[in-house]
Each structure stands twice: as structure tokens, then as C-alpha cells.
Amino acid sequence: MQRFSKEFYCRDVLDVAPEMLGQRLVRRYSNGLVEKYIVTEVEAYRGCEDLACHASKGKTARTEIMYSEGGRAYVYLIYGMHWMLNVVTGDKNHPQAVLIRAVKGCYGPGRLTRRLRIDKSFYGEDFTTSQRIWFEPTGRTPAIKAGPRIGVDYAGEYWASIPWRFWADID
DNA sequence: TCAGTGATTAGG
DNA sequence: CTAATCACTGAG
To answer: Would residue A139 count as lying in a domain?
Structure first.
């Protein structure tokens, strides 16, 4: 099965995020074991004007990767214990990312990274060339639902209520 | 409901 | 250096 190429990721995050639902996340461990998961829930974070997006506070060592071309991983630690896995999208200097919140059988962004053993070493990982994590098209086009993003009340009512969380009910 | 946990960030 | 913040989770 072919993985998604650069072109898939180098588009607006609001186009990419919903299209990732129903697609396959593949993780290959150092011992050769390969696990495959279907993406079921994501969130879009879009540019410096989006007050819920980390890039709204400007370019820092942590957010730098979001300013690169789409197709790389933005990984960071939250609340001192949970790694968050994001997919950078869009053109260079258009900081955007898709937070992977859930896959079939594993719900919650922190649980997901714990199960897949994703940590800081995945920061900047290139999904188009990586041998340990990537995404593949499945051909599925599930019905998509949308609602407010989780845990971003600090961004103010407008950005906290905008429906940029997307999910699909996949058995 | 609420504490745990530590990297990251701005500020002195 | 200090202190605040935080795209979450699990226990009760």
C-alpha cells in the first residue's frame, strides 16, 4: 500500500484534516513489528490568527516545525505527561497542524501516543519518508461530523467554539 | 470533580 | 533564575 505523498499534506489544514479520517496510520517498531490503525478523530489548528494554535504566540523552538512544509510531525508534551501527535500541513511559513486525537480502538491523544510509543524523538519526523510512522490512503470516505475543539477555552469564545474538530463513527 | 507532572515560555 | 501555563488522563 502506498503512503500519502507531500502533495497531500501541502494543502490547507481544513482540507487535509477531514480527509485523514478513515485513513490508515502505520507504526513500525524497531523490532520490526508493524501496527495499523484507522484514524477516527482529528482537530485542525490553523495559522497565527487562530488563538488556539500554538503558532499564535509566534515562532519558538517548540513551534518551529509548524512553519515548515506539510508532511512533518509536530510532537510536544502537555501537562507534564502526555505527548501530542500532530501532522504539519500547508505551505512553508503557514503554520498549521492536525492533532490526531483518536484511532479506532484507542481514544484520546495522550493514550494514543502512549500506546504507539511516540515521544519527543518523533519531533520533525517526515511522514513521507519515515520508516517508523506514516499514513496510507484506504479509499474510505466516511461520513464526517464536526464540532468545537477540546480543551481550548483559553483561546476565547470564537476560537474555542469554531467547529474544527472532525470525527467519523467507524465501527 | 480534581490532582499529577515537567517541558516550555516570558520576564526579571 | 522564577513562576505561570497547559490541544490530558485516571481515580474517586
So the answer is: yes
- Residue A76 contacts strand B, CB under 7 A: yes
The total number of structural domains in chain A stands at 1
Residue at A133 is within a domain: yes
Residue A108 domain boundaries: 6-167
Residue A1 lies in a domain: no
Per DSSP bridges, beta strands A34-46 and A24-28 are antiparallel
Identify the H or E element spanning A109.
Answer: helix A109-116
Q: How many residues does chain A have?
A: 171
Q: Name the maximum alpha-carbon separation found in chain A.
A: 46
C4 C1' – A1 CA distance, angstroms? Answer: 47
Could you read off the pLDDT of A36-81 as tens digits, one per residue? 999 999 999 999 999 999 999 999 999 999 999 999 999 999 999 9
Q: What is the CATH number of the domain that holds A102?
A: 3.10.300.10
pTM exceeds 0.90 for this model: yes
Q: How far is the CA of A37 from the C1' of C3 (A)?
A: 40
